[in-house]
Every structure is written in structure tokens, then in C-alpha cells.
């Protein structure tokens, strides 16, 4: 048979299969923009600003709608009411994690952010309990934060009040707090291994938000057929994984199960306690990926929030003046601030929340999935589907900090 005829027949079959798969779900899934065969709604979405595209779709199709990233249907929840109904009223059914092929290829279902099912529940429960035991918002971690804040101020003083970009210092400070919790030790801001780790974390955050990564997540075959797209990303992940693995081995050699020093010690102790179980969730692979998740979720996000917070306070000197007055009145100049001060500083607390709301750091949440076939607002969402929480639509509607009833966005 003529090769051209074979090619045409194959393409026709793919198109028919795509149309059938997309149309077969239309009677169950919420309505949305009409997808094209194979590529779905990709041409209707601005990959550089997906959040804006989803917002435009919601104006036409309502707060719950379906878009196709390639041949894969994705249910989008837009707005406070829809998100609340899903995560609060039907929290168990919406507790699954959606597919994220680029990370799935590396994590293989381990860690907290991209794991699922029993492993996710047990790892998440253990991590929260461990952080609480070490004082999440209490004394132990609080002292780490206070010490790092002191070091940050010392570094900033070295600039002699000259204009500077604080991005580097803020990144070092937040990464060091996580190092203190996970690895027990903080590092000097000039330590080369520490700087290498920070560089890899920062690079991969940029890669994850790039248009190429969005395309690879929607068309996973590209990861294998065009590896150059993700080579640098995976190379950075391997570097970070090996760094953490080396630290885990060092911890194992000096482990005292009765006196855990940090998060890794607690995880290794849990591994020892459950080593006789038939199905192990606490393994070397899981401790490494979980530690990487803590760095990935906390370093760039916190430092970026601090940086934007400084910029917003520069833009709103009247807000800055009121914060300064509250600090002088409650804390003064001769002691470090502590968590107990929070209840006596409602204005500062409100401004912090308003900064987090206004900057909209993660406009679209990581993909979620439903744990079973469910009925949601008269639509049927099958277990194989996943959905996106459009965080931007919630944050922009409800100012969280009533700073003289005037949000920072004004």
C-alpha cells in the first residue's frame, strides 16, 4: 500500500478517535469552549497567561466549565462559591491529585505535592505532625526564623543604605529557614553548595512556569521524543536529589531515634518503625522527594512574597507608617518579634494577608483529581478527569486585609 495512503488513514483514525473521546464526555462534563481534534482548546488559550484565558472562558460558560488540554478534559472551578463547594462541602471526593507528567516522570508518585491516595495521606499527615512537633509557629522553628532574620538584617546593613536588589538576600534567608528545619543547619550566604542548591531551585521554578513546560504537560510524548526541552530541568532535579540523598545518608549514620534533630531524622525514625510492614510508604525515595517538595514549595514562594511585600510598602507609605507605629508600640527596638506579638498587631497581620491576596502568587493551583465518579452541580465528573482551581478568581474578589477598608490594589 502507498505510504501516503497509510499516513492519511492513520491521521484520519486519530482524528476520529479524538472526536469520539471528546464528544463522548460532553453529556457528562460541564460545557466549555468547543475543542479541536487532538489539540483540544490549546489554540484558544494564551500559554503565557493561562489564568486570563480561563477567566474569559468563565464569562461565557459559567463558574464550572471544561477545557481540553490536548485530548485530556480538565474541569475548571472559577470563583469563591464553586471552589468552596468542592473543597469544603465535598473535600474527600475532591482530594485527589491530577496528572502532572513532567513531575510524575521524576517523582514517580513520591513526596507530598504530586503523590496520590494512601501515600499522599500518610506522608502529608506525618509531615504536618512532624512540623508541629518541631514547633510550626511555636518555639523551635520560631527561633530558627528569628536567627535568620537577624542574619538577613546584618547582610542588608552591609549595603550601607545604598540602593540594592534584595532578591538574593531574601532567597538565602527563606532557603536557610527550610535548611534549618529539614537539614538541621543553616548556611553562610557565600557557601557555594548552598548557592548551587538555591540556583537549581530558582531555575526550575522558572522552567515550570514556561510555555514549553505547559505544552509538555499537555502532550507528554514530547518529553521522550524531544528530551532537549526538559533536559536542564531534570538535570537540576537530579542534582538536588543527590544533594538531599547525601544528607540523608549522613543523618542515617548519626541517627538517634530518641533524639531527632530535624525533619529527616524524624522520617528515618518512622522508616525504622514501619520497616516490617508489607506495603512501605516511608522509604528512602520518599524522604528525598518529600524534602525536595518542602524546598520547592517554600523557598521561591516565600522569598517572592517578601519581595513583593517590600515593593507594595514602598508604593503605600501611609500603610508602612501605620505598621511602623504598631511595631514601635508592641515590640519596640530592644527585642526580637515573636509569634505571641501577632495577636497584639492586628493591622500588621491584616497587611500581611492583604499582600498575599493581592500578589496572587499562584493564580492557578496544581491539578487536582476526583477520587470517584461524582455529581457536582448537576454534572457528572468521572474519576479519570482532573480539575484546576482558579485561585485568582477567589483572591481578587475578597480583600482579606481591611487596612482602613482600603485594599492595597487601590
TrEMBL record:
Cofactor(s) needed by this chain: heme
The enzyme's E.C. designation: 1.14.14.1
What is the name listed in the Swiss-Prot or TrEMBL entry for this protein?
A: unspecific monooxygenase
Sorted alphabetically, the keyword list is: Endoplasmic reticulum, Heme, Iron, Membrane, Metal-binding, Microsome, Monooxygenase, Oxidoreductase, Signal
Where's it found, cell-wise? Endoplasmic reticulum membrane; Microsome membrane
> Which Gene3D superfamilies does the UniProt entry name for this protein?
Cytochrome P450
What family is reported? Belongs to the cytochrome P450 family.
The broad enzyme category this protein falls into is oxidoreductase
| InterPro entries membership | Cyt_P450, Cyt_P450_E_grp-I, Cyt_P450_sf, Cytochrome_P450_fam2
